[in-house]
């Protein structure tokens, strides 16, 4: 009898368990649209879900009757830490970043945006095969002013809000092969906006021209695996042609003869093995960022405490400025509301406990009443008297002394009055 083959699940060992462990404490998000939005905003929502993978609900489907409150109620039960809600206003599209479950809530106006398909159509280099989205992107914050007394107070909070969207980066424990994408968030001080960019990291041989690389890696270009040099008189014409000289077709692009990365500032020595052909540890490679989109230019409008439906004080507003007196009055009003909300919650809890106690006392009283009714005068024995009396075999039926004994005629009449037995006849 042949032995049963046992499958060895190698894909669950080592890397898979480490990846699950690393993603256990990672922030997770819902990216949704609510209200009536067009096809462009819907596509922007799908592109943003792609950016936030794998720590987001990529296949989340919204219905028209779903409200933002529904996702806020469901999110904490699923371990969701953030909600990114896109909507369309009469002025411009807007984005709200909600930190569950205590806030704060950041409201942005989307000044300009470009979809993934728009960015890819304008560049020739950007190619994505999908494996880059198996790991979360790296976050890069640029052009934000350092903390100082003159720094606007909302900018540090803005930086922390973006940092909380992505897993923390630890250079000591991160695997080099997991660094596949970069999200760049830069602050434009002149315009007062935040630019959002998404890139894919490309690692190529350093110091090799594009023509030489085409010859060395010819298998990845045509399906036949052979580089087409039919228009060249000699392979030297293809390899040694100077930059800017016209080719056999009459022109040459400026990028066809350049190296993969221009200078030594782009070259690094790999500390570990990296994805791709011949990207081994210790080899010198050129690193390049290829933008894949989407792009967004965001303007911060408002920062509020709490979450939508339970908003607190307004911490920052782009267009409304309040004096210190007005801010203090608003803070006192919010504190009074919070105190009233706390008192109502405590009162509700006391009412619930009181009703539970009353219900329990009523059940105990009913049980005690049932025992008293069914008891037998303290003996502890339960009586089975149903009101009809109990038959005693030893008890004699006493006859009334004044009652005369029945006569013989009465006996005969009683015998005559006995009903006759019914006889059943079988019919044919």
From TrEMBL:
<dbReference type="Pfam" id="PF04427">
    <property type="entry name" value="Brix"/>
</dbReference>
<dbReference type="GO" id="GO:0030687">
    <property type="term" value="C:preribosome, large subunit precursor"/>
</dbReference>
<dbReference type="GO" id="GO:0019843">
    <property type="term" value="F:rRNA binding"/>
</dbReference>
<protein>
    <submittedName>
        <fullName>Brix domain-containing protein</fullName>
    </submittedName>
</protein>
<dbReference type="GO" id="GO:0006364">
    <property type="term" value="P:rRNA processing"/>
</dbReference>
<feature type="region of interest" description="Disordered">
    <location>
        <begin position="242"/>
        <end position="264"/>
    </location>
</feature>
<feature type="region of interest" description="Disordered">
    <location>
        <begin position="330"/>
        <end position="428"/>
    </location>
</feature>
<dbReference type="InterPro" id="IPR045112">
    <property type="entry name" value="PPAN-like"/>
</dbReference>
<feature type="compositionally biased region" description="Basic residues">
    <location>
        <begin position="1"/>
        <end position="12"/>
    </location>
</feature>
<feature type="compositionally biased region" description="Acidic residues">
    <location>
        <begin position="371"/>
        <end position="415"/>
    </location>
</feature>
<feature type="compositionally biased region" description="Basic and acidic residues">
    <location>
        <begin position="343"/>
        <end position="370"/>
    </location>
</feature>
<dbReference type="InterPro" id="IPR007109">
    <property type="entry name" value="Brix"/>
</dbReference>
<keyword id="KW-1133">Transmembrane helix</keyword>
<feature type="domain" description="Brix">
    <location>
        <begin position="27"/>
        <end position="309"/>
    </location>
</feature>
<keyword id="KW-0812">Transmembrane</keyword>
<feature type="region of interest" description="Disordered">
    <location>
        <begin position="1"/>
        <end position="28"/>
    </location>
</feature>
<feature type="transmembrane region" description="Helical">
    <location>
        <begin position="71"/>
        <end position="92"/>
    </location>
</feature>
<dbReference type="GO" id="GO:0000027">
    <property type="term" value="P:ribosomal large subunit assembly"/>
</dbReference>
<keyword id="KW-0472">Membrane</keyword>
């Amino acid at each position: 009898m042949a032995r049963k083959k046992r499958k060895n699940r190698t894909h669950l060992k080592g890397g898979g368990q480490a990846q699950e462990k690393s993603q256990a404490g990672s922030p997770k998000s819902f990216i949704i649209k609510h209200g009536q939005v067009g096809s462009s905003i819907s596509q922007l929502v799908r592109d943003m879900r792609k950016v936030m993978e794998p720590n987001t609900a990529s296949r989340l489907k919204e219905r028209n009757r779903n409200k933002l409150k529904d996702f806020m109620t469901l999110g904490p039960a699923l371990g969701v830490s953030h909600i990114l809600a896109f909507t369309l206003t009469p002025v411009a599209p807007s984005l709200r970043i909600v930190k569950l479950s205590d806030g704060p809530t950041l409201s942005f106006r989307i000044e300009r945006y470009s979809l993934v398909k728009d960015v890819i159509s304008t560049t020739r280099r950007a190619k994505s095969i999908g494996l880059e989205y198996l790991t979360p992107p790296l976050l890069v914050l640029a052009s934000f002013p350092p903390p100082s007394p003159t720094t606007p107070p909302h900018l540090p909070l803005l930086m922390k809000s973006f940092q909380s969207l992505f897993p923390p980066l630890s250079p000591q424990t991160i695997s080099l092969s997991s660094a596949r994408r970069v999200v760049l968030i830069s602050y434009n001080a002149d315009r007062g906006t935040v630019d959002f960019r998404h890139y894919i990291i490309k690692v190529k041989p350093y110091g090799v021209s594009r023509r030489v690389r085409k010859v060395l890696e010819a298998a990845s270009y045509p399906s036949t695996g052979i580089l087409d040099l039919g228009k060249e008189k000699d392979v030297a014409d293809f390899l040694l042609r100077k930059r800017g000289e016209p080719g056999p077709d009459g022109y040459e692009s400026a990028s066809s003869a350049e190296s993969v990365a221009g200078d030594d500032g782009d070259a690094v020595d790999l500390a570990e093995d990296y994805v791709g052909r011949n990207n081994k540890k210790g080899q010198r490679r050129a690193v390049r960022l290829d933008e894949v989109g989407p792009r967004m230019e965001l303007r911060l409008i408002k920062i509020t405490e709490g979450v939508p439906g339970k908003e607190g004080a307004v911490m920052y507003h782009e267009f409304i400025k309040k004096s210190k007196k007005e801010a203090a009055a608003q803070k006192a009003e919010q504190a009074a509301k919070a105190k009233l909300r706390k008192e109502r919650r405590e009162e509700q809890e006391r009412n619930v406990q009181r009703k539970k106690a009353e219900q329990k006392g009523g059940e105990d009283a009913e049980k005690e009443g049932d025992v008293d009714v069914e008891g037998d005068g303290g003996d502890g024995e339960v009586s089975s008297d149903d009101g009809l009396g109990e038959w005693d075999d030893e008890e004699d039926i006493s006859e009334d002394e004044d009652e005369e004994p029945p006569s013989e005629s009465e006996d005969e009449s009683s015998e005559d009055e006995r009903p006759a037995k019914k006889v059943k006849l079988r019919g044919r």
